[in-house]
Every structure is written in structure tokens, then in C-alpha cells.
Amino acid sequence: MARVSATGKGLVLGIDIGGSGIKGAPVDLQKGVFARERIRIETPKKSTPQAVAEIVAEVAAGFVDEVGDDSPVGVTVPAVVHHGVTKSAANIDDSWIDADADALFTRVLGRPVVVMNDADAAGQAEMHFGAGRDRDGVVLMTTLGTGIGSALFLDGQLLPNTELGHLELDGKEAEHRAASSVREDKDLSWKEWAKRLQRYYRHLEDLFWPDLFIVGGGVSKEADEFLPLLDLRTEIVPAQLRNDAGIIGAAWAASHQKI
């Protein structure tokens, strides 16, 4: 099938599902910005696929005037997404594992849907509108938060579901050593945390030989505190779109992927 185009107004709806909140907004894909203030609703405590889908439908209903009720929607989930099926579950109910998320959201929303991993969506946004714009070669984005998400690109093309936060680092999963949440839980100084990040990013360098690292997640707004402490051969920069990236990347994917 042909690529799905944006609505007549040039706006596409993106919805970002997180462990604590479900957020959505219509996105102006000419500029890579929200066309209206986002709507955020708390993620239900029992975050089963059906319960989450009902909240997603509520968010979508809030933007019918901007995008209509039959235009494509991009939806991110904190999970590996393989051909529309979620194969893992991070900070959401385990019943998401092997759930046909594409079919569920398509049925509940009554319109075409693109479902993708949340870090991949954030990476798409940064590549098209943020820190990775116009960058060729190997670009690797990591999101430092409760865990570590990743999005890997070659000449602007996404290799989905890399999940590089689960690489082994010093006998543990990397995100259990170097995620932003670990810094907070263990009350590490920026210098102490940077030593852990140094080990992690050097490991990624040796595996992928990237041309650029992009560092996302909420902590990226404090990048000046820790990025200068890293000694890498690869250029490393903070993400530009921060918490808006998931919604923007989801909308971009809905407008450009085959449905």
C-alpha cells in the first residue's frame, strides 16, 4: 500500500503510552511541533491492553476537531513491537506480552494505526526534527530514564527494537547500572554516574562504531552536568525535543509508514 498522508490541515495525532501517563497531541509535521497543547491522562493502575486502549481512545477523542476521526494515529508503547504485536512489557502490565496491539488500537480507535516502541519513536523525532536532523551514517539514540531505551539509525533508516539497555555491563543489565533512575536511587554524584555512562557508551562504541550519540530522557535537560565528563571518540549531544519526542515521532511514523 502507499504511504498514508497527513490530514488536510497537515496535522497527525501522536499518542505516547508511558508507565505513569498517556499523552497525546496533534503534530504539525512541517515544523515538528505540537499544534495544540497535549492531553495527559494517568495510566491505569491495572495497565492491561484493553484498559490502556480505552484511555488512548479518550485522548484521541479530544482532538477530533484538529485531525478528524478517520486519520491515521501513531501510538508508542514501552515494549518491543514486532509486526504490530508487543513482545515485552516495561512498566506496563505483563498481559501486553504477545498482545496484538495493532489490531486492538485499530478496533478501539476505528482508524489506521501505527504502533511502535517508545524509544524508536523518540529517535524518529530527533532524526527528522531534532539533534539528528540531516545526519547520515550510524546514529544511536539512548533514552536515560527508569531504564535505558535505544534507537539505531543508518543513513536515517531505523533498525527497530534494538533494546540496548539490556546489554550486559559489569555482570548486570546496563540499565541496572547506568539508567537515570539508578543515579537517583543510589544518590550518585554526576561524576560517579558519568563513570558508569562512560563504560556503557564505550561499550556501544566498540559494538557499533557510531557517528553520533544522541542522549534523551528527562535528564537530558541537565546534559551539561554529565556529558562533558565523558571521554569518547564519538560525538555525543543531548536530544532537543525531550518529552515531546515520543508524540512527535509517533505522528511522523503514522504519516510515513505503510498501513
Summarize the structure in words.
It is a single chain. The chain is of the alpha/beta class. Helix content is 31%, strand content 26%. The chain folds into two domains: 11-121 and 244-256, 2-Layer Sandwich (Nucleotidyltransferase, domain 5); 134-240, Nucleotidyltransferase, domain 5 (2-Layer Sandwich), CATH 3.30.420.40. Strands 1, 2, 3, 4, 5 and 9 form a six-stranded mixed beta sheet that branches. It has a five-stranded mixed beta sheet with strand order 12-11-10-15-16. A three-stranded antiparallel beta sheet has the order 6-7-8. It is globular, with a radius of gyration of 18 Å. The N and C termini lie close together (7 Å).
In a few lines, what is going on in this structure?
With 259 residues, the chain is an alpha/beta fold. Helix content is 31%, strand content 26%.
| Low-pLDDT stretches | 1-8
CATH H-level superfamily of the largest domain = ATPase, nucleotide binding domain
| Helix percentage range | 25-40%
Shape: globular
When the domains are counted, the total is: 2
Oligomer: single chain
What portion of residues belong to β-strands? 25-35%
End-to-end distance: 7 Å
Overall average residue pLDDT:
94
Order of H and E elements: EEEEHHEEEEHEHEEEEEHHHEEH
Computed structural class? alpha/beta
Q: What's the CATH C level of the largest domain?
A: Alpha Beta
**In this structure, how is the largest beta sheet organized?**
6 strands, mixed
Question: According to CATH, what is the topology of the largest domain?
Answer: Nucleotidyltransferase, domain 5
Secondary structure tally: strands: 16
Number of helices: 8
- Architecture per CATH nomenclature, i.e. the level-2 architecture of the largest domain: 2-Layer Sandwich
Return Rg in Å.
Answer: 18 Å
